[in-house]
Amino acid sequence: MKNFNKNQKERVEVMALFGYEMTPCQPLTFRRQGEKETEVTELLRTQIKFMGGITLHVFDVLIGREKVRLEFNSRDLSWFLTQ
Predict the structure, then answer these.
(1) Cys-Cys with 56: which of 19, 48, 49, 79 at CB 3.0–4.6 Å?
(2) What is the model's pLDDT at position 83?
(3) Per-position DSSP letters for 19-83, written without gaps between them
(4) CA distance 64 to 52
(5) What distance in Å separates the CA atoms of residue 21 and residue 34, rounded to the nearest whole number?
(6) Successive 10-residue mean pLDDT values, the chain, 83 residues
(7) How many CB atoms are located within 10 Å of the residue 10 CB?
(8) Terminus-to-terminus CA distance in the chain, angstroms?
(9) pLDDT of 20
């Protein structure tokens, strides 16, 4: 995975499983623009943030040994990668 600066957001495409058992959403893979698909190794933590009229679903995940954060914006259905 290419270098990524902290506190930077990058829009990504995510393949996620919705409505699975006790986890309402689980990201499985994501793809950065111009790169191959990257598999999520492990889901570490999820949280929901309410910001005005927007609900932001935050997923802390492992990609191999690297910890990254995927955020899902419920208003425009967009996904972002942050670190």
Answers:
(1) 49
(2) 75
(3) EETTEEEEEEEEE-TTS-EEE--EEEEEEEEEETTEEEEEEEEEETTEEEEEEEETTTTEEEEE-
(4) 34
(5) 33
(6) 69 90 86 95 94 92 95 94 87
(7) 15
(8) 12
(9) 66
